[in-house]
DNA sequence: CGTGTAAGGAATTCTGACACG
DNA sequence: CGTGTAAGGAATTCTGACACG
């Protein structure tokens, strides 16, 4: 499911992350939520999985700028899936 | 996808229905969204399909109380799917 | 660097009601 | 019956900033 339909609150519940963390990962260019006309972020189930993966990598000692390559590769792959 | 994750605004976009119609169908017991602690409705992709189906049936002349049986049957079926 | 938090504002959603037919 | 709308309120989300380390 790559359809971006859920708000940050639901993503928070699904990932266990804080809104701060989610927004920061977006700021670091690791996830790319859509936006409603009002500016609210909309995420997909894939984004949820990706966010969990990001957090795991960070826990393992990686830095956001290092994840960019790995994550982007995942992204490029998921595009033609 | 039976996970109830999206707000009524997204459902409005995905179904083309108005919030009024969506809330009314819930009032008529044709869809059963979850609620956030704050009271906001949360729908699943299945709910989106169901809502479209409901609207089609209404367009064809059925009434909400008649749909209840049909729809409920669909619901009972989707539970063990 | 990655995350917490208080601040003020804007967008989202909620309910109950009146309306029409 | 099914749907529109204006009304007031409550919950959600947003941004920019200060903080810590």
Q: How is the secondary structure organized here?
A:
Two copies of one chain form a homodimer.
Chain A: H1 8-15, H2 19-27, E1 34-35, E2 41-42, H3 45-59, H4 64-79
Chain A binds a DNA duplex (21 and 21 nucleotides) through residues 7-9, 18-21, 23-24, 28, 36-41, 58, 63-65.
Description:
2 copies of one chain form a homodimer. In chain A, 59% of the residues lie in helices and 5% in strands. Chain A is mostly helical. Chain A has one domain: Multidrug-efflux Transporter Regulator, Chain: A, Domain 2 (Orthogonal Bundle), CATH 1.10.1660.10. Chain A has a two-stranded antiparallel ribbon with strand order 1-2. In chain A, a hairpin with a 5-residue loop joins strand 1 (34-35) and strand 2 (41-42). Chain A binds a DNA duplex (21 and 21 nucleotides) through helix 2.
- CATH architecture annotation of chain A: Orthogonal Bundle
Strand order of the largest sheet of chain A: 1-2
Helix and strand composition category of chain A:
mainly alpha
Span from first to last CA of chain A? 11 Å
Percent helix range of chain A: 55-70%
Radius of gyration of chain A: 12 Å
Biggest chain-to-chain interface with counts: A-B, 11 and 11 residues
Counted up, domains of chain A total 1
Number-wise, the strands of chain A total 2
What amount of the residues of chain A lies in strands?
under 5%
Mean pLDDT of chain A, rounded to whole units? Answer: 93
Contiguous helical run count of chain A: 4
Biggest pleated-sheet summary of chain A: 2 strands, antiparallel
SSE series of chain A: HHEEHH
Oligomer: homodimer
What's the overall geometry of chain A?
A: globular
CATH class bucket of chain A: Mainly Alpha
Ranges of chain A where pLDDT stays below 50 over 5 or more residues in a row are none
Tell me the CATH topology of chain A: Multidrug-efflux Transporter Regulator, Chain: A, Domain 2
